[in-house]
Amino acid sequence: MKYDKPIYVTQPFMPPLEEFMPYLERIWESKWLTNSGPFHEKLESVLAEYLGVEHLSLFTNGTIALITALQALRITGEVITTPYSFVATTHSLLWNNIEPVFVDIDSKTFNLDPRRIEEAITPLTTAIMPIHCYGNPCNVEHIQQIADTYGLKVIYDAAHAFGVTYKGESLLKHGDLSVLSFHATKVYNTFEGGAIICPDAKTKQRIDYLKNFGYAGEDTVIAAGINGKMSEIQAAFGILQLEYINEVISRRHAIDMLYRKLLADIPGITCIGEITDTTRNYSYFPIFIETNYPISRDALYKKLRRNNISARRYFYPLITCYPMYRRLSSAQKENLSMANDVALKVICLPIHPNLTDEQVVEIVNLIAAVKGADA
Ligand code: T4K
To answer: 10 CA to middle of ligand 1, Å?
Structure first.
């Protein structure tokens, strides 16, 4: 069956409009639109509590938060990172005149492979920037051990990891800083938005200055900061959105389980295996098209598209294929065989709270019905 309207890879959860109106009325009444207004302050505190972290600084989006996180820790030189991510991860390095050094991913989590980090360290290395891809935790212990041995900072791109816990605690507590995205396509959204999770009040203070042009008082500027502030409309939406987040994640969980059950017997289709010690947020549902599937990954992708299923190949092409990265020696294919392999196999299927069980069944039926002749 072909749907009249596309079924998107994701769709934001929208709370009832009438519940948002009182927030808008308060903004209209107060005329306080941005610059650490009351909704901004409230969201910082309720989010920190929900996430189980002590200090959090809100941002206008995740990319500006990444750029600022690097500034906050005064990172320079070279940073070890992954090619298997959204371009914002490494663009944040280029915006700081830092050279990305790419290291391959591991075959289970698709996150930076810690066994490959040490050989990429040079005298210019100052930090590691891994991502918790699809919200699944990196090997945080091993990464921290390397960072401690070599005196490196760790900044996690945690754009996908909202609400994820690892060994009973927030995953966001690992590393020196973690950066979240609250973009419309994420599990939790504020239209656009993001945050930096920081370990102490002093670091948060510096980050707060940096996101407000570097102002540390009416007539004192301590650094060439940027405008990274979250507005009152974004923050108000975030407060309301938080009331629904547990429902949203449990609906995603149910979809994840249904996909796994239905896909289990289709030869040539594999899913990410069990992730131990973790409560997940089910932000993405990647499948991998193996060589014993009747048609290629791209042929399946096109077939889904023809049927109005807007699946996506996150993350293909690899970051290292783009012109601003491909000349780097660490970007060469032979250095990144696992990432190159995975990028050619992946398709992220639709997962979001508005998706129905019937739609999941239809999507899987399309995948199951493929014969060699469909190529
Ligand atoms: N680090 C990582 C690891 C990231 O994944 C991202 C963002 C960042 C950093 C940067 O954080 P932000 O600066 O964005 O806060 C999307 C998002 O734009 C991007 O935020 C996200 N990662 C990336 C993985 O995906 P596109 O180009 O795939 O988005 P787009 O517009 O094609 O949207 C995907 C689907 O979502 C659409 O087909 C329909 C649906 N959609 C989208 C929007 C924007 C809606 O239903 N409503 C909407 O408002 O990049």
So the answer is: 9
